# Entry
Amino acid sequence: MTSLFDISLIVHILAGSLSFIVAPVALIVRKGGNAHRFWGKIFFWAMIVVCITAWIMSSIKSNRFMFMVGVFSFYLVFSGYRSLFRKKLYQTGKVALIDWIVSIGTLLFGGWLLFIGIVAIPQGLAYVALAFGVIAVLLSISDIRNFIKPKADKNQWFFNHLTGMVAAYIAALSAFSVVNLDFEWMPVVVLWLWPSMAGIPLMIIWTRYYRRKFDKGRKIAELAEVKIQTEESLS
# Structure
């Protein structure tokens, strides 16, 4: 009889493979267009399935690091997607309760990662927990501060969306690296963190590229098709 773990693993692999395929497509096509929204939603829901199955498997196998990546990936993809519903935050100052709950929960989770990382030093995985903990705390604090006092930048949602989605892909790639790259010569901490070390600088470059465009007077509508999302369009 197939166990819950086996079923979760199969679904996890299928959803993860799908997310790896569609994410580059969503990045390449015109931002905000029909194709971008279509492939972006597939990536979002595939990542949600990846996170849920990771939580199930981690609870069965008592694997705290699988749970860590699941929570971390969920926050990133959720935050990136929810930013589409906060395009007018700089005007309205309104934030949905679910956004507060997830951001505060991630802040507490990041604090927990920092704690277990400090306790586990000098083990290699301790530094992985510390790295993910620092990122989780910084990103959640940034979101919470923006909820309390929204930035005047009307394009901030664009950068939040870009950062969240790309960072979620990096987190998923980190998990894939650890599970599938069997390089005995490579330290475990490097297997965990090389996607972040490679992806974060590229994400910064990409963000600066768009900021320069906006600083030169380019409107976001010239670079992306903008559609104001409503809570009813979440599905």
Remarks:
- The chain has a mean pLDDT of 82.
- The chain has one domain: 4-218.
